[in-house]
Amino acid sequence: MLGISLPSQFEYRNGVLHVEGVSALKIARECGTPVYVYSTTAIAERFAGLEAGLSEVDHLICYALKANSNQSILKLLNGLGAGFDAVSGGEYARAIAAGAPGQKIVFSGVGKTESEMRSALEGGIRQFNVESEPELLLLNGLAASMDAKAPVAIRINPDIDAETHQKISTGMAENKFGVPIRRARHIYSRAAELPNIDIVGIDVHIGSQLQNLEPFRKAFSLIAELAAELRADGHAIKRIDLGGGLGIAYNSREETPICPEDYCEAIIETVGHLGCEIEIEPGRYIVGDAGILLSNVLYLKDGADRRFLVVDAAMNDLMRPAIYDAYHEIIPVSEPGPDQSPLSVDVVGPVCESSDTFAKQRLLPAIGAGDTVAFLSAGSYGSSMASEYNTRALVPEVLVNGEKYAVIRKRPTIKEIIDRDIVPAWL
Ligand code: LLP
To answer: Residue 381: CB within 6 Å of ligand 1?
Structure first.
């Protein structure tokens, strides 16, 4: 009726939006708003879909923690057999805390510190995705001092346009990521000379929220060619890490996301013949559509030439619209009647800057103060990017499973926030 497609775990029942078997209104009332709500089944289904698509090749799905690193979500994915992609010592520690074995954690990122590398070497690591020669040398020296060998894949920058938002595009020559593909053979031969480096594979990640398969295909094919060259040079290439990036439809009226089966097929077609273990690092695809942000409407306010719907969620809670002009579908939690005429509104939060705008001139069913709305596709890069700007407490998170739900992160009190500051004795 709203003309948008919702994941099947989110549907109106008796006029109220439900997440699996639980009313979103009930969660909003009991936990307060804003609140993130995730569906266990939606996460598990997305994960299972990728597992099925890659079943004919040896593979490991390394969930990118940055998309949503709540312990419960990591535990859920760990239980399903996922590996993890961490990009900081903090994320590595989160994966370990959720029960992941070090052997299933890859460590990516362009600026790993020595102490981060050390904790991963101590705790166990599947591979470091190394992004530069200086990083390689530092890792080698550190591993030598620990009498260890560091498993390494080199991240290659293939200079391919991922055709996505420029702020989340990572595979072009101008981006800081990876080693230029033309220098790949050189850096692999350097790596082979280092006694405490164990070359295990090749890594690539060209960007996030990809909507077209072609850039993936191009990048994966280049990596397959490179693997053959590196093997001819005598390197043992046993793993290929293809990164993340599979997009979702934030605006299901206008966007057609890549079909995950096609993505998996493209992987098998381009690199399947190498006999390598294939790793992928999806984040958004697994949790994005599995989460919503519930928010209450504070005011319907008339401006000079437009109406503002002021909600109690703000840019600090869901940063994507402010940073990337990202679109998130907004729907009322109480199902609108068939004869309601839509209103054109700017949906804004309480934070004191104009970038605190979730939507401009959006046609929404008639909604007023006291109503609850849901921001869709908010499971990825929502809570994980949130801040306490304007001293707004981090939004709590709720996980639904069938008829039950649990608070998986509580809202801190303002006192807890204040108490983190330290006032020196001289003040
Ligand atoms: N692997 C690496 C090395 C990455 O840098 C990323 C994302 C991923 C995997 C996971 O990508 P995904 O499958 O989620 O697309 N904050 C932005 C997205 C930033 C993505 C950064 N890297 C957003 O809200 O759209």
So the answer is: yes
In this structure, the strands spanning 83-86 and 59-64 are parallel
CA of residue 71 to ligand 1 center, whole Å: 19
Annotated catalytic residue: which of 31, 62, 259, 352? 352
User: What would the mean pLDDT of 218-244 be, rounded to a whole number?
Assistant: 98
> How many Å lie between the centroid of ligand 1 and the Cα of residue 367?
34
CB atoms within 10 A of CB 336: 18
209 sits in the region (left: phi over 0; alpha: psi -120 to 50; else beta) called left
Q: What's the predicted TM-score (pTM) here?
A: 0.97
What does the pLDDT read at residue 91? 98
Structure tokens given for 69: 């690193």
> CA distances (Å), 425 to each of 196, 282, 415, 419, in order?
48, 48, 20, 15
Classify burial at 19, counting beta carbons within 10 Å of its beta carbon; exposed 0-12, middle 13-18, buried 19 or more.
Answer: buried
Check residue 167 and give its pLDDT: 84
Which residue out of 47, 60, 61, 66 has the highest number of ligand 1 atoms within 8 Å of its CB and is therefore the one to mutate?
66
The CA 385 to ligand 1 mean position distance, Å, reads: 12
Residue 288 has pLDDT above 80, yes or no: yes
d(CA 45, CA 52): 10
- Report whether residue 116 contacts ligand 1, using a CB cutoff of 6 Å: no
Which of 43, 208, 380, 384 most suits a substitution to test ligand 1, by most atoms within 8 Å of the C-beta?
208
pLDDT of residue 175: 87
Using the mean position of ligand 1's atoms as its centre, give its distance from the Cα of residue 160 in Å: 16
CA distances for 344 relative to 119, 295, 329, angstroms = 52, 18, 14
Name the nearest CA neighbour of 202 among 177, 230, 174. 230
Q: d(Cα 160, Cα 207) in Å, to the nearest integer?
A: 10
Ligand 1 atom having least distance to the Cα of 281: 9
Task: Please check whether residue 292 is in contact with residue 24, taking contact to mean a CB–CB distance below 8 angstroms.
Answer: yes
* % of residues, the chain, pLDDT over 70: 100
- Does residue 148 contact residue 195 with C-beta atoms inside 8 Å? no
Residue 427 has which token pair?
């003040």
Active site residue 352: yes
For residue 229, what are the CA distances in angstroms to 78, 130, 185, 203, 239? 35, 19, 8, 15, 15
pLDDT, one tens digit per residue, over 249-272 is: 999 899 999 999 999 999 999 999
Closest by Cα among 40, 36, 61, 2 to 260? 61
